[in-house]
Amino acid sequence: MARAFGHRGFKVRLIARTKVKLEDLVAELAGLGVTAAAFPADIRDHESLTAALAAAESATGPIDVLEFSPSPTGPITRAAGATVASATAQFELHVRGAVVAVRHVLPDMVKGFRASCGGRGACRCACHDRHHGDTHRTGHSGRLSPGPD
Questions:
Q1: How confident is the model over 72-88, as pLDDT tens digits?
Q2: Angle at Cα 123 formed by Cα 103 and Cα 66, nearest 5°?
Q3: What is the sign, positive or negative, of the torsion defined by CA atoms of 88, 103, 55, 11?
Q4: DSSP assignment string, 113-125
Q5: pTM score, two decimals?
Q6: Which is it for the CA torsion 2, 26, 13, 67, positive or negative?
């Protein structure tokens, strides 16, 4: 994902627990012509994750795209072997961290997004690329609403 977005002109910011792993990824991406920056954090530590996201924004500007894909940790169990503890651990990793990240970046993402709706719920949406000033349009049905806090 980092390569694909980096080759399309997006600023790549990486977050992971292991600083050495991040440094290796930044070096690998640089070798492929992608500029990236690293911000160590544990996504299960919500304060650490929020601080890393804020540092990334401070260093390189607003985040336009968020790709959240934590590496699996702990045993993956079949449904019959699941326990409250194992389910809670996976929920913490895959859901709560994602919610924290989205709630942090969404307000700035919405500022860069314009939508106009016509009849029968059809929307025309434009996302302004802050990096190049381009506008990309997609048609979809639905509504854009940041919703209440």
A1: 766 677 888 889 988 88
A2: 30
A3: positive
A4: EEEEE-GGGEEEE
A5: 0.70
A6: positive
